[in-house]
Amino acid sequence: MQRLLACCLLATTLSRIDVLAQTLNLSQAIDVKKLAKIVVPPKFETRVVGGRVTTNEKLGGYLIALRYDKEFICGGTLLHELIVLTAAHCFSGREKIKEWVAVGATSKLSDKGIQRKVKEVIKSAQFSEDDMNMDVAVVRLKSPMKGKKIGKLSLCSTYLKPGLELVVSGWGMTDPNGLRPQNLLRTITVPILDKRTCRSSYWPAVNITDSMFCAGLLGKKDACTFDSGGPLVYKKQICGIVSFGIGCASRRYSGVYTDVMYVKPFIEKSIKVLLAKS
């Protein structure tokens, strides 16, 4: 679900347009396009909103591009030369392991980078697209991801209090009308938000569970489509995984991330299982 919840908001808005159109007492035909401009909020910003262009090397070389059938799907984080951490929703409807490739040491999606085939993926059994709870997956590569521009992150060990600023990076779209990721890598610093406030803003459309937290500067800074699976980083630790949101840089809805501290037992157990296999 790469910001697919935006569709729910759009559907609701269109329904409001329908109702408004029916209640207007006009002697002439209604111009639906003009009406939409009045009722529909500004188009969803589809990018690492407020971000700046950077390189993977400057970040630390830990960011991985995950491709399926040669198409870029999600970001990921290198934890070990054979292990990549990402979001479970990236694999929904993409079950053929042989089609997955992890690409490291790349800043532009057009670059070849260092490519490694995926051997196995473990998703949390508690993950469901219906609620996005436990949106985490651990990927085992067929061969080690090595190179002078390759780096790794450790799992989070920091308590994420509101206001703490972390870095999120990815190839999210920049064209609000586009359908594809951006070729250039972007990065942005976003603050952690109070969970009760975030939970209240999303309710009842979405239940913000214990495996999630929210971050972003409402209306200004956020991750978005095609940033999914990428890391939210604090001092060389991955503390969040880009999961979902309604819109991007919305004035009401912040970005939602999988809480790495919460899902750490699953991650560590999965890594142990995957590395034990030859």
From TrEMBL:
Pfam families: Trypsin. The keyword Acetylation does not apply. CDD domains: Tryp_SPc (cd00190). Residues 1-21 form the signal peptide. GO terms for molecular function: serine-type endopeptidase activity. It comes from the Eukaryota. Keywords: Disulfide bond, Hydrolase, Protease, Serine protease, Signal, Zymogen. Residues 48-272 form the Peptidase S1 domain. The keyword Signal applies. Gene3D superfamilies: Trypsin-like serine proteases. Belongs to the peptidase S1 family. This is Seminase. It comes from Drosophila suzukii (Spotted-wing drosophila fruit fly).
